[in-house]
Design a protein that fits this description.
The chain is an alpha+beta fold and about 325 residues long. The chain is about 40% helix and about 20% strand. The longest helix is centred in the middle third of the chain and has 23 residues, at about 185-205. The chain starts with 15 loop residues before the first strand and ends in a 14-residue tail after the last strand.
Length: about 325
């Protein structure tokens, strides 16, 4: 038999990465703006922000993403609601498909969130330093970075952008590998698992001030203990109590950034038996005490640089063509 291969073209490719951030801002944060010769997008994970782009300004809420084309001046400030969390990534790409994203504000879906989460996860193991410094203009690679991390970052971002283009441009092609599509039973089970996990997550989030036990969670959600533990490990790799504790700490971080309560009030509102136990749990989950976290976030918020223009040639170029 004689085989003849085909070349797999790249309709959208990312050439260089200039910044990759996950920000947890105070609700008083304001960044006066910059312009640079490469693309950037801002995606809101929590809260809301006001974005300026060229001569436009608009509010961006949870699950929305805004794109800044090369050379466009842009600024951001925290909204009037909860303190925001943002994913901000800047990159270069000469692909014609990128023209679609000029002046775009789009909504993302759960599949998009997972791709962004994987991108941030890989960046934490690949890049030196913190991902929450908005004034960092030079990136460097960890000596111990895992193999293939740069490629995963690049392919996740490319898949993320292509997915947005397909969905919002209404040019979704026919499904590929129809013969390998999951069976109806598997699809129904996957959907049921997603619904159950979402319901339990909302239940836990609504009861952050309580002292929930596994038995109580199972009873209130009509689920067996073994099924609950298996579901949590499949969806987030954690036990149910660890996941519940993580939700409490994420809520605590939000409250600290909102600056409406002191640590004792936050501890009490989240059902901790004492401020000391709250502080130990916070440090266990974040690597910082509540005071250290507040100081770290506040230090970033208090930096107000001048408007700046970044020369892309002087910025770090850490993702290269390796294929």
């Amino acid at each position: 038999m004689s085989y003849q291969g085909i070349r797999l073209p790249s309709e959208l490719s990312i050439d260089q990465l200039f910044s990759l951030h996950y920000f947890e801002y105070m609700n008083s944060f304001y960044f006066p703006g910059e312009s640079h010769p490469f693309w950037e997008f801002v995606c809101v994970d929590k809260g809301d922000v006001t974005i300026g782009a060229g001569n436009r300004s608009f509010v961006l809420t949870r699950g929305q993403i805004a794109f800044h084309e090369p050379g466009e001046f842009h600024w951001v400030k925290a909204g009037d609601g909860a303190a925001p969390c943002l994913i901000v990534i800047s990159f270069s790409s000469d692909s014609p498909m990128m023209d679609f994203f000029r002046n775009k504000v789009l909504n993302i879906q759960e599949t998009d969130r997972r791709l962004l989460a994987r991108t941030v996860q890989e960046a934490r193991s690949y890049l030196n330093g913190r991902l929450d410094d908005p004034y960092q203009t030079s990136l460097s690679i960890r000596p111990e970075a895992p193999p293939g991390a740069a490629q995963i970052i690049r392919t996740c971002l490319e898949q993320f952008l292509i997915g947005l283009f397909r969905r919002h441009n209404r040019e979704e092609g026919p499904a590929l590998f129809v013969g390998l599509s999951p069976s109806p039973d598997k699809t129904m089970k996957k959907n049921a698992d997603e619904e159950t996990f979402t319901r339990i997550s909302r239940y836990l989030s609504a009861n952050l001030s309580a002292h929930l036990s596994i038995e109580q969670i199972c009873t209130d959600n009509l689920i067996s203990r073994s099924r609950l533990q298996k579901l949590l490990h499949e969806k987030c790799g954690k036990g149910i109590i660890e996941y519940y504790s993580l939700l409490k700490i994420e809520a605590a971080k939000q409250m600290i950034r909102d600056e409406q309560m002191n640590f004792t009030q936050i501890s009490e509102s989240l059902g901790y038996s004492s401020i000391h136990y709250f502080s130990r749990q916070f440090k266990k989950m974040t690597g910082m005490t509540p005071s250290e976290y507040a100081s770290s976030i506040r230090a970033i918020a208090e930096q107000v640089p001048e408007h700046r223009h970044i020369d892309g040639k002087q910025s770090a170029k850490i993702i290269h063509k390796e294929y």
